[in-house]
Amino acid sequence: MKTIDPYQLDASRVAEPPATWSGKLLYCGPGFVLSASIVGSGELIATTTLGAEAGFQTLWVIIVSCLAKVALQLEFARNTIQSGETCMTALNRLPGARCRGTHWTIWFWLLLQPIKILQLGGIIGGLAMLLNIVTPAVSIPVWCWVVAVVVASLVCVERYQFIERASLLLLIVFTAMTLISVASLQWTPYSIGWDDLASGLKGELPAGALVFVFGTFGLTGVGGDEVMHYTYWLLEKGYAANVGPYRENDPVWQERARGWIKVMYLDALLSMVAYTIVTAAFFVLGAAVLHVRGEVPSGYAMVESLATMYTESLGPWARVVFLVGAFAVLFSTVFSALAAWTRITADAFSKIGLLRFENPISRRRMIAILSWFFPLTWAAVFLWYEQPVTMIMIGGLGTAAILLIVVVAALHFHFVRTLPGLEPGWFYRIAFLVSTISIVLLAGYGFYKAIL
Q1: Half-sphere exposure (CA, 13 Å, Cβ side) for 372?
Q2: For 59, 252, 357, 391, which has the most beta carbons within 10 A of its beta carbon?
Q3: CATH code, domain with 298
C-alpha cells in the first residue's frame, strides 16, 4: 500500500469540504495540537508568574495576547491551504534580502533558536521537579533524562493522528481542574470582585515587571512559533491536499478552497476560545492567590508555589490532583512542541541546503534525528542553568521576536499572495489590520520602556 505524503498535492486526493457542523468538527484538530503546546509554558508558568508579580494590573495584556495574534495565524493558514506551502517555503518566497539564497527571515529564525531551547529546557525541568516531588527517591537530573527519552520515543514515530489525540486528552485534564479552582476561590479569603478585574483593564504596565509582561505576551495565546507550526499541522491533517493543486480561473477550485478555509476558521476559533479561557483562569489564580501571598514561582520551588494556588482554593487534597494535572499540561507542551519543532527545523534546514524536505525519506530521517536531539539538549541546558521560570521567560522574549517575522510575512500574504476568488471580507481585513498594528505598537512600546 502506497504511503500518502501530506506535503505533496495530488489532484486524485481532492475532497469537498464538509457541509454540516458535525462534519466540520471532525476536521478540527490542528488548533488543539497548537493549544496543547500553548497551555504549559505560557499558561501554567508564565501567566501565573505574571499574575503573582503584578497582580490583576496586567489582565489586559493576557486578553490582548490571546486575541490579537489569531488573525496572523489565520493568514498563514490561508496561504498554506491555497498553496500547499509549508511555513518555511512561504517565508523563502518573500521579497527582500537573502544570504546564500535563503531569505533573511529564515536566518533570523535560526539565530533565535538557542533562546527557544532555554524555554523548552525550563519546561522539561518543571516536569522533572514535579516528578521528583512524587518520587523523591529519584533525583531531578535522572527525571530530566527520563522525560527526554520518553518524549523522544513517542515523537520519533511521526504520526499526526496520535499527536492530535494525545495532545487533546492531556489538555482536557488540566483545563477542567483549573476552571473548578477559579470558581472555588469565591469561598476562600482570596475571592475575586469586579473591582479586581476592572483594575486589570486600564492598560497599565508596571515598570518592575516589564520582562514578565513581554515574555508572557510572547508565550500566551498563539505565539510566533505556534503561528508557524500551525501550517504543518494543517498540511498533515489534509487541508491543502483536499483543496488540491491550484487551478487558475477555476470556480470549482475556488469554491472548494473557500470551503476548507471556513473549516480552518472553525478549528482556529474553537482553539482560541479554549486557550483564552484557560489563560485567563491561570492568570486569575496567580493574581488572586500568589500575589496576595507575595509568592513568585522561581527555582526548584516553582512547582510547590504553583500547587499553592490549588490547595488554597480547593483544600490540601487538591495538591495531588494538581500534580497529576500539571504533569499532563507540561508533558503535553513538551510532546506537541517537540513534534512541531522537528518538522519546522527540518524544513528550515532544507532551505539552507542540508536536506530535501519534500523527499519523504529524507524528511522522516531528519525528524527522527531531531526527535532525540532536541529533548536531550533541553534536559542538558536545564541541568546547567536550573532556573525554569527565568528560562521560560527568556524564551518568551524570543517568541515575541519571532512574532515580528510573522507580522512581516502575514502582511505580504494578505496584500500580495491572496489568490483571485479567495479575498477575505471586510470584517476579516479590519481584524487583521487591528491585530498587526496592536502587536507592533505593543512590542515597540515594550522595547521603548525597557530601554528607558
Answers
A1: 7
A2: 391
A3: 1.20.1740.10
